[in-house]
User: Fold this.
Amino acid sequence: MLEFICCSMLTIFPDFLFRRYWQGKRLGQEITLFSMWYELRYGLSSCFILTVSLITLIFYYHPSTSNVTSFFRTVTILPEISGRVTEVMVENNQTVEEGDVIFKLDDSRQRAAVATARAAVIEVDAAALLAHDDTRVAQANFDAAEAAFEQTKDEFERKNTLFQENSPAVTVREVERLENLIQERLAAVDAAHSALESAKHRLEIQIPAQKDSAEASLNQAQVELSKMTIYAGQAGRIEQFDLRPGDYINPILRPAGILVPSDTGRGRFQAGFSQLTAQVLHPGMLAEISCATAPMRVTPMVIIGVQDVIPSGQVRPSDTLRDPQNLQRPGTVIAYMEPLWEGGIDHLPPGSQCEVNAYTSNHERLQDPDIGTAKFVALHVIDTVGYAHALILRFRAILMPFRTLVFSGHH
Assistant:
């Protein structure tokens, strides 16, 4: 509408000045709506056609959209396990740094588990000392059994030699007794050796395994204890936080609040343009943005990327086939924009609702010495009408507070 009014004024206003001051016609007498329409019908019709063509040219090569915002991420403040709140360290709308304590839960059960696990580690250490003693005792018993076996063996060999020489000092019964005693001593050696190996295995294998298990249980208990203190994972601002000591918190049924990271949503805007602009938008394209959070201010931007898919075509596995006719709203071509100058949008908070114009520039194509005259004029016209669109954006930026506060029924 604004484009039509501006274009029509190029015909109506000069004609009114000519007839009023040059021909001396009076307003309301010779100059009426009927006379103006009758005398300007061809001009106004041509102006309407020109306006439609101009609007089409502007919005195609210099697309505009009000579907612009800077998306930001939020982090839900949740403990990993349920518990009753014992202490709250922050307040709503408070800024926190990474690692700051937000609140604590009742950790008496976890502390008891840590104490039990620590006692189990101490018990294993004590068992290791006893295993050392048992190993030394088993080694001593093995040495004693070997010594007894060697002594019995030496005695048997000496008396058996005498018996073989038919000495009357040794009887058959005594030699047989020594043979049986050797077998007994050998069995005692085997038993002592088995006891020694068992003691070594307990000291070298069983005790370390028990200690590893006890230390793992201690670590697990300490991890569970650490879960009872909830920290800020990153710097940001606490929102929708109304937790009090004594409240019962559940990670599924009741979150504690929301943390808005301080670095999210800053420095980048996302704009959804009509699908007709898919062949026009490209990285490096200049743009201008005007937001409700900073009225009467236009900020230069640059498109750094264009999403190569249309969000409306997204599908998920299900048991129902998607029918294109059920798409109520067509998707948009999403362009990512950053400020042309560093810090250019620091004054715009994340989530701002804005309007944006993107401008086609044919400067490099116009430098081609082989360009034809018709193409040269057409490219100049395309670049020139961008100024009209930029002027309209500034009119909208100026009128935004009045349109919002007065004409929209805002209270």
The chain has a mean pLDDT of 84. DSSP finds six helices and 14 strands in the chain. Helices lie at 2-22, 33-61, 108-164, 172-226, 363-366, 373-407.
